[in-house]
Structure prediction request, 207 residues.
Amino acid sequence: MRLYYHPLSSCSRRVLLVAQQLGIPLELITVDLFRGEQNTPPFLKLNPNHQVPVLEDDGYVLWESYAIMQYLAELAQDKTLHAQTAQQRADTSRWMYWCGQHLSPAISILNWEHSIKEMAGSGPADHAEVERAEAKFIEACQVLDAHLAGRDWMCGKQLSLADLAIAAPLGDWQRAKLPIIQFGQIWRWFQQIRALDCWQSTEQGTD
Prediction:
């Protein structure tokens, strides 16, 4: 299987986390986002949305990181990340979709304004955008922090796809200047994630 990715993409990282955790080998193909390779005709044949990651498996092409995570979990011989019951699967999906709707967008803005924008030569941070994104991030973290109270993991008693999906964008917490430490339950849970072998093997200097 091939994974088209970028090393600074947290969406790519959540797929790599699953692959590492389940021992699934992937051929990694870097898409240079700063040079616009995501806009070229060959890449757009893989993903018309101009985004990484994209998985290619014997002619089958799949984009959207959450879908790729679920696909890898279903294929793997190691079923520890694959929820067994309908309710467990729904709970896992609920938190993955929540991440995509509420948490990740705020982090993406903060990462862009505080870090990527300078790398791309697009000028200084927009303070109004930073303030707006921080408010959204804090609102999402209040929900997440309350959920994690009394829980080791997001769903049930073991690591799940939801944990890896949510943790991946938080890996940019320093670069994006995320006010995460004030949320004690999230910080405690995040340290568990950071101690995992799969996390340490996918570090790109963002932690």
Summary: The helical segments are 10-22, 41-46, 65-75, 86-119, 127-148, 161-170, 184-194, 197-200. The mean pLDDT is 95. The chain is about 55% helix and 10% strand. Residues 86-119 form the longest helix (34 residues).
